[in-house]
């Protein structure tokens, strides 16, 4: 029966604003309290109708994302957090340590603009121990008090680039990815308010920039470069984007987004 229940409109915990609406799912207190007592059909109807309209009214930028309907179909639902060690695990199995990976989450932020959907990316500061100077998504380790992987991705985004909860709508997850540094990453796809102005944390983020989604979803711009690692020749993905090197885990997660959108 649980497999047939629709996904919750929130991400594991509701926090209310001054108007009494949840910052994550935009339900009021009465709607949140009544939710567990509703049957699956009623929940599904609310999410497809009144709750979606409520979300569009409170976050009108959501309707400006052309890929919204396709993403609703192909992403892992928020309440069905994808399992598995990572779709790329076989490629790195001989390099990974014999211990559980570090659980982490990142935010794949899509910004609807008049010129087309943009993907928000960051460049990490050079002095960081892991991946210093590299391009990636805001995010990091899932902490013990994070009630949900999506909450971790949003918390990290607030810390790194000052993204407020009301400036993003979480849609769902891409497939888990394992990094060579033994991090199991859950990429959360979210729609970001185009009025959002990033304020990079100087200790972590050197730069915040955007790249057109159409460019990143055009596989003619993606290359597989051979690298020598661990005594073997391996392929690392890389996008050809002026002024920035978008490669490795970030490029692979974007390729996974392309793969999922193709299913729609």
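^ Assign residues to that structure.
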């Amino acid at each position: 029966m649980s497999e047939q229940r629709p996904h919750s409109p929130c991400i594991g915990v509701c926090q209310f604003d001054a108007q009494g609406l949840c910052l994550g799912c935009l339900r009021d207190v009465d709607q949140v309290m009544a939710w567990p007592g509703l049957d699956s059909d009623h929940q599904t109807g609310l999410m497809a109708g009144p709750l979606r309209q409520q979300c569009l009214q409170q976050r009108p930028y959501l309707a400006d994302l052309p890929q919204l309907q396709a993403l609703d179909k192909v992403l892992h639902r928020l309440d069905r957090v994808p399992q598995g060690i990572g779709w790329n695990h076989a490629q790195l199995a001989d390099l990974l340590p014999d211990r559980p990976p570090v659980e982490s989450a990142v935010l794949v932020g899509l910004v609807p603009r008049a010129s087309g959907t943009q993907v928000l990316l960051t460049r990490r500061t050079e002095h960081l121990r892991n991946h210093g100077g590299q391009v990636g998504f805001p995010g990091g380790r899932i902490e013990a008090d994070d009630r949900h992987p999506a909450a971790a991705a949003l918390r990290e985004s607030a810390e790194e680039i000052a993204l407020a909860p009301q400036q993003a709508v979480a849609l769902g997850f891409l497939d888990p990815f394992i990094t060579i540094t033994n991090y199991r990453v859950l990429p959360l796809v979210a729609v970001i308010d185009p009025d959002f102005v990033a304020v990079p944390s100087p200790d972590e983020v050197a730069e915040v920039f955007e790249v057109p989604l159409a460019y990143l979803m055009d596989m003619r711009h993606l290359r597989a470069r051979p690298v020598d690692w661990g005594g073997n020749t391996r392929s690392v993905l890389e996008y050809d984007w002026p002024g920035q090197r978008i490669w490795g885990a970030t490029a692979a997660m974007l390729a996974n987004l392309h793969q999922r959108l193709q299913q729609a």
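The radius of gyration is 19 Å.
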